[in-house]
Amino acid sequence: MFDYKLLSALAAVTEQAGFERAAQVLGLSQSAVSQRIKLLEARVGQPVLVRATPPVPTEIGRRLLNHVQQVRLLERDLQGQVPALDEEGMPQRLRIALNADSLATWWAAAVGDFCTARGVLLDLVVEDQDVGLKRMRAGEVAACVCGSERPVAGARSLPLGAMRYLALASPGFVERHFPDGFVAGQLAQTPALVYGPDDLLQHRYLAELGIEGGFLHHLCPSSEGFLRMAEHGLGWGLVPALQARTQLASGTLVQLLPERWIDVPLYWHHWRHGGQLLSDLTDHLARQAARWLVA
């Protein structure tokens, strides 16, 4: 029989990225949380966490976290059917991983009505679209929006559509670096904007132009900051067409190659046995995402 106090401690340490914040969330001392983790490890006979900064679940730890996530969702279903079981009257909360560009553009509009009508609180974890699935694999989230089609074990994936990215820069940047007219082959020698180490979109774009190897770039781990830096001429970058409508209309940003863009498919991953709330959100996204994403 599982001791869910011990499993809750494991979930809190992983979700809060440390023992101190986990203790605050659980209303316990840091020592008490540590003791619960040690007791859980004694019962399963092996470590459930790698004591790093932040702590990382082991393989058995990930399996336990996956179980906790699904139990939480199923408990919410039961509380809805038997309200007396919901002693605290707490609102429903979903922990979801998604990429920063989705959060900055279509996500809020797509889920706003659903969350309001159902009284759902979101706990969002921002990850690049190419690596967000690792949060589900680690058992940290109930669902995610990412660029990977293949789901993890015990989950399903749903194609949502694609985000279209345009290569944009300010007019001043273009004049400064391409005074005699734009030459694609020179892009590697002009500063680019890259979201972070996991962002390979600019690499892919240059490769499609026949440019291989390294290139000059800024690192900017903020979707809004990325756009601001492009507007102010610090570099060129691949920006969601949804995000740059105003700038393109006003001329503060221009396309480097109007005939070339990149479409990045996005998929919604969710636990197969994640309860009615997660199933309803999945159905809602299936209907709504097409309003903003490219088919």
From TrEMBL:
Occurrences of domain HTH lysR-type (ranges): 2-58
Instruction: Tell me yes or no: is DNA-binding among this UniProt entry's keywords.
Output: yes
Q: Domain of life, per the record?
A: Bacteria
The name of this protein is HTH-type transcriptional regulator ArgP
**Which key words tag this protein in UniProt?**
DNA-binding, Transcription, Transcription regulation
- Quote one Gene Ontology molecular function term: DNA-binding transcription factor activity
Q: How does it assemble?
A: Homodimer.
Concerning PANTHER family, the annotation shows:
HTH-TYPE TRANSCRIPTIONAL REGULATOR ARGP, TRANSCRIPTIONAL REGULATOR
Role played: Controls the transcription of genes involved in arginine and lysine metabolism.
Family per record: Belongs to the LysR transcriptional regulatory family.
Q: Which NCBIfam families match?
A: argP, PRK03635.1, PRK13348.1
Organism, as annotated: Pseudomonas eucalypticola
